[in-house]
Design a protein that fits this description.
The complex is a heterodimer of chains A (249) and B (195).
Chain A lengths: L2 H29 L12 H10 L1 H14 L3 H16 L4 H29 L5 H17 L2 H16 L9 H12 L20 H45 L3
Helix pairs in contact in A: 1-3, 1-4, 1-9, 2-6, 3-5, 4-5, 5-6, 5-7, 7-8, 8-9
Chain B lengths: L18 H25 L3 H8 L4 H26 L3 H31 L8 H32 L9 H26 L2
Helix pairs in contact in B: 1-5, 1-6, 3-4, 3-6, 4-5, 5-6
The chains are: A mainly alpha (249), B mainly alpha (195).
Chain lengths: 249, 195
């Protein structure tokens, strides 16, 4: 594959980031009725009624989310390639980041698929609908650690890079670590059904998810910048080649 | 003949440690600030319950832990001073002291928690206990992370890595430790004393 084509794929992968982000917020958050999300304290009957009242939106929101989530993959793959370039011969952190990115897709996917299943036969026993809803929320809220590792790996490589045009500025690396750690309170969603640490609470939902959004936006910005910089370098090299090889007396 | 005025060079602006680590520390402060606000807001809804439950906390252990952390922070600061004066063995002993006190803090917390669990009190007992366990456990995670950081500083100090010309790693690590201490200084009165 020639460099120009490779760079084109890289740029598309980078832009998968913002594209994923915006469409995911729309389908998972807005259409899927997750802003606000249902409280774990809701009775089974009330929860079932919520599904029935918003059936089409919930189905559309999460079925689409299951497709859109995969755009996290090319983005993670690009980040892995960029990290591998920095790491050199043994790109361990790049692999770790890639693993984390892939597993994040699975965690979010399973979560949404539980909710689609709940909405599949809304006339089911409400207790079963509650079970499926619980499965979805605990799946996504308790298994954040693979995302945290993905983020920390990227931050570590970003911090270790010594180049005139680093992939991530240092402040972005520390923001990444902090955002990754902001997920920790979400472990309490496995126990609490009310209060700020429940899965509809400020400290387990709104703050961590917002932090993840901030990190993802910042990282995407710098990844796009990096690809475009290398595209310009490649073009410049191409021009120099043309000048030295093109003109014949 | 010209008289040259001697203008003293401007005082060098030295931010101890690493600017980006300070940003991280500030972010952590904000996060805990959000926790504290959440506690205060929720407390308003059932002040009597919170006050009654608060009485069951062991205030003496809380005070002991506060003394442990403050002393530990002081030792960490002294270690930096030792580095600035190029007294490398002192750095090691002071960091070792700081780590010992950190471990002591963790042990006290272990006893506090197990006592409560033995009485059948845990995170789900009521709102106050939810905050007590959640906030102190999240803080404890930071104490453990800080202990790991101090240990890395200790290992580096043993290899004589820190001296007047190379302070920023030591300063950054100890700055994080001061954050952990500061958080407890807010947490202790908030949970154990505020009525």
């Amino acid at each position: 594959m020639d460099e120009k084509t490779s760079l084109k794929f890289q740029l598309i992968s980078a832009w998968c980031g913002p594209a994923f982000l915006i469409t995911f917020v729309v389908f998972w958050g807005v259409i899927g009725q997750n802003l606000p999300n249902p409280s774990p304290d809701l009775s089974a009957t009330d929860l079932a009624a919520r599904y029935i009242a918003n059936l089409n939106d919930i189905r559309l929101g999460f079925i689409m989310s299951l497709i859109i989530i995969v755009f996290y993959m090319p983005w993670s793959a690009l980040l892995a390639a960029q990290m591998a370039r920095i790491e050199g011969k043994f790109p361990v952190m790049a692999y770790l980041q890639l693993l984390g990115g892939g597993l994040t897709v699975m965690v979010v996917s399973f979560s949404a698929f539980f909710w689609v299943t709940a909405a599949f036969r809304p006339e089911r026993d409400p207790v079963l609908i509650q079970l499926l809803t619980d499965l979805g929320w605990l799946c996504i809220d308790l298994q954040y650690a693979c995302t945290t590792l993905q983020m920390v790996a990227a931050a570590m490589v970003g911090l270790a890079e010594r180049s005139k045009t680093p992939l991530f500025p240092r402040w972005a690396c520390f923001l990444t670590i902090w955002c990754g750690l902001s997920f920790l309170p979400a472990s309490l969603t496995g126990v609490l059904k009310t209060g700020p640490f429940a899965w509809d609470g400020m400290l387990s939902y709104y703050i961590p998810y917002f932090c993840w959004l901030c990190w993802f936006t910042v990282a995407s910005l710098y990844m796009i910048k990096d690809v475009r910089r290398r595209m310009r370098e490649s073009d410049a090299q191409g021009d120099t080649m043309a000048v030295t090889h093109g003109a014949t007396a | 003949m010209s008289t040259t005025q001697v203008i003293p060079p401007p005082l060098a602006r030295h931010l101890p440690g690493d600017r980006d680590v300070w940003i991280f520390i500030f972010a952590e402060l904000l996060m805990f600030g959000a926790f504290f606000v959440a506690y205060l807001v929720h407390r308003q809804t059932s002040v009597d319950l919170y006050n009654a439950s608060q009485q069951t906390l062991d205030r003496d252990l809380g005070v002991i832990n506060t003394i442990f952390l403050i002393t530990s922070s002081w030792l960490a600061v002294s270690a930096v001073a030792s580095a600035r004066a190029n007294r490398s063995r002192e750095i090691v002993s002071r960091l070792a002291g700081a780590i010992t006190l950190a471990l002591a803090f963790i042990v006290v917390k272990y006893f506090e928690y197990t006592t409560k669990f033995a009485e059948g009190i845990n995170l789900t007992t009521n709102d106050f206990y939810m905050f007590y366990f959640a906030l102190t456990m999240i803080h404890l995670a930071h104490v453990m992370a800080g202990t790991v950081i101090l240990s890395v500083l200790l290992l580096n100090a043993k290899e004589e890595k820190y001296h007047r010309q190379n302070l920023s790693g030591l300063e950054a690590g100890t700055a994080y430790w001061h954050l952990v201490d500061l958080l407890w200084i807010f947490l202790f009165p908030l949970l154990y004393l505020l009525r």
